[in-house]
Amino acid sequence: MPESGSTPLGRIAGIDFGTVRIGVAISDASGTIASPLETYVRRDEAQDRRWFQKLVADEHIARFVVGLPVHLDGRESAKSTEARAFGRWLAEISSLSVEFFDERFTTHDAQVFLSDARLSKKKRQARLDKLAAQIMLTAYLERQHTNPDAADEPLRGLDE
Q1: Whole-prediction pTM
Q2: What is the pLDDT of residues 2-29, one digit of tens each?
Q3: In order of start, what are the domains of the chain with their CATH numbers?
């Protein structure tokens, strides 16, 4: 559990950024368990803003963690630039802090998990992004609980 004054209490929303679909997972209030919530299909900026603001209000979101797509060697990709721009937008429209977290392998892990689930291709695709968000958020929460002083990690803030 976060120390008083260190991080706002409330749920954390994990975001698997995409230009068409955005996977969303949320934590419980204690920041211990991540659950897939929804795959949001992007529309236009006004509708996207309303949707995320409603998410913040309805789910009592205290901060966002946006998955940052990086290359296998840790270098940022072109998609990383897009994810960072989205994170800045999300911070602006929600007035919440946004952190970034390495999302390498989350989509692959989600695909492997779903392929074992014996679902139709359509059902697997519908669950993929929110499951990838859950996998990324789970890794983030585990890191917070095992290494809460990871603030100097290179993927943390919006200022990069």
Answers
A1: 0.79
A2: 333 344 568 999 999 999 999 999 999 9
A3: 31-152 (3.30.420.140)
